[in-house]
Amino acid sequence: MNLFPFIPLSIAALFAFKLILIYVLAVSYGHVKPVFPYISDAGATHPEAAFFSILLYLEGFL
């Protein structure tokens, strides 16, 4: 079975998961306001910054 067609799909799914996870964490900890936060603001403090970095490295590996 050829797995190469699933690589772009997995990268897109991981990107969407990363954005949703960081947004939920940042709002739940009160680091950003729930209405239209910038991703750079949401990923600037811990623990969101750690998840952002880990998932970004994983996307780069794929």
From TrEMBL:
GO terms for cellular component: endomembrane system. InterPro entries: CWH43_N, DRAM/TMEM150_Autophagy_Mod. Keywords: Membrane, Transmembrane, Transmembrane helix. Its main location: membrane. It comes from the Eukaryota. The chain crosses the membrane at residues 6-26. Residues 4-62 form the CWH43-like N-terminal domain. It is found in: Endomembrane system. It is a multi-pass membrane protein. Signal peptide: none annotated. Belongs to the DRAM/TMEM150 family. This is CWH43-like N-terminal domain-containing protein. The lineage of its organism: Eukaryota, Metazoa, Ecdysozoa, Arthropoda, Chelicerata.
